[in-house]
Amino acid sequence: MPGRPTKLTPERGDSIIATLEQGVPLNLTALAHGVHRDTIMGWVRRGDEDHDTNHPDPDTTTMAQLRALAAAQDVDLPAGRLTKAKVAQLVTIPTVFSDFSDRYKAAQGRAFIYIIQEARRCGKDDWKFWITLGERLFPDQLARRWQPPQEEGPGMTAEQVAADGELVLKVLEGGKQEAAG
To answer: Domains of the chain: which residue ranges?
Structure first.
């Protein structure tokens, strides 16, 4: 017996993706769309699982259909004699979840790139807003990792932090020079 219907409709997925692309944090995006953030992340995880397991049945699919799926998914088919079973293992049947997962990750990537571009465009004078926003939206990529030196274990020294700060400023100055040039 199947479970209850999913709340992920194409319309809701489009709206969630559009909101995320505007830089709205995931928890607020979820709230605005009447779902919990864990629900959205569950849809992403399910989409990832669908990519791994939702292969077409070679007994009910023609080779032409399999080749069309491979072309649509940018799968390079190996040279030589191919069987339907081999091709079926290389492609997946898209689902509402796998489509959402792909679009979610692409939206996150576009938002991250936009924040970095804006920080570089602003240069050393006005970059702090964009980096702070980036730290909050993408803590795994941009959060500060400095820890006070400990007697044992890894940690960054004050000199390493200063060197990292100088590197960030050089990158940002380069972005401002590119924008001015």
So the answer is: 10-54+92-180
